Amino acid sequence: MNVPHANELFIGSRWVAPQGSELADVVAPFGGRVIRQLPRPTVDDAKLAVAQAQEAFGAWADLTHDARGEIVTRFCGALDKRLDEIVRVWALEAGMPFRNGDELTKAASDLWNRALDESRTAPWIETRETSMGRIEVRQEPIGPTVGIVAFNGPHMQFALAIIPGLLAGNTMIIKLPPECRMLGYLFADAAAEADFPPGVLSILAGDADVSQYLVEHPGIAAVHFTGGTEVGMSVMHACADRVANLVLELGGKSAAIVAADADLDLAVPALVDAMALYSGQICVAMTRLLVAREIHDEVVDRLVAGLEALTMGDPANLDTTWGPLAAPRFLDRAENYIERAVAGGATIATGGARPSGLEGYFLEPTLLTNVNNDMEAAQNEIFGPVFCVIPFDNLDEAVAIANDSRYGLSGSVFTTDEQAGLDVARRVRSGVFIINGTFPCLAAPFGGVKQSGFGREGGPEGLFALTQTKSITLSVAAGATA
């Protein structure tokens, strides 16, 4: 597949020669073969990106919202022209099945265009009359900002975090993971077409050394991080040393509660579809399935049938509903968790092995039963195709199990009792929750609580996530302290 400017890097809104000469392999998860090589960004490249972002910040922040919006609109339009390429490349280099990738990419397009619309009427500057005087409240950019995005939806994170950050007036350095090197070139090609002013936007698909340099740099005023909780903690420590602004969208161990009165013809297909989405490599995956004891066996039988009916194969094939994991380390991690869970007393209801006849990083969808909520497979984010079924006796117990987690990203309940569903939704400690479904509305504020992070993306709240609020007293009311 053709990669634009394949011998260069996109730094400071322009294609430039890399500072180093090392090349990085792009390996296809399906087949496990090297499909091409691209320049490996170095710390020196990141240093240049920071210097350019610092130099460009003042002029970019001083532009009117309309002027910035015009440029970002061009960027979104250029991305929209590349949607089909994005879907194909995502399948090729990161293993996202084409069918799901197409749906999520169209959703990303809807979200970045929604952000553009919301920005045009957002209260970036508003005047308020208070008992102590008349004030102006301004949402202002923070400064040079690093956006670290994940392989399981980088363009979704562009829509929810990067586009709003640019609209707000921040200069941005986007650090993509190694699994998205080719995607990074497509995003950069769109940015080049949009013709951002020099220094405003850099896009680098680098390794951990580049990420560490960027988050620790004293010239970086804000970081928006999407990824695992353990790495997020390290990012938080780095930002704390200089009191840099931070948004963390971290991991989850979300629980789907299947009540005794649930419509299983609705619930089970929804759960199977959610489990199949990117082989569990989704932060909002419902990896704990809390099932009313009286329907436990029936639900397990139905889930097993649904999972075993999935079509495993080439993610570029439209018929594929279960693709490979994105990298060998995710495969090894999932297998180790399964092995330890079984040693601890869990039972494999289906899956648990690498399928025969398929080359690449494949692992069968794995459903574990006889799991206690205190087992590590039920407590830790595995970020792979390992799902735990845990029985409960009443909804109070289900809520207690759901809340017995260091995470708090998402959750769901399946019930035909509308009031009971709403009661459960309000009691589960999570940033988002779904009744009779599994995937949150990303046009609404999205984010976690507890060790799933803080800050929000999506909706009007997400538009201001990378801003700081400033108030100016325009006039002091009579009798107020001057």
TrEMBL record:
The membrane-spanning stretches of this chain are none
Protein name listed in UniProt? aldehyde dehydrogenase (NAD(+))
Keywords assigned by UniProt, alphabetized: Oxidoreductase
- From which domain of life does this come? Bacteria
Cite the EC number. 1.2.1.3
- Enzyme class label: oxidoreductase
Reaction(s) catalysed (UniProt annotation): an aldehyde + NAD(+) + H2O = a carboxylate + NADH + 2 H(+)
PANTHER family referenced in this protein's UniProt entry, alphabetically: ALDEHYDE DEHYDROGENASE, ALDEHYDE DEHYDROGENASE-RELATED
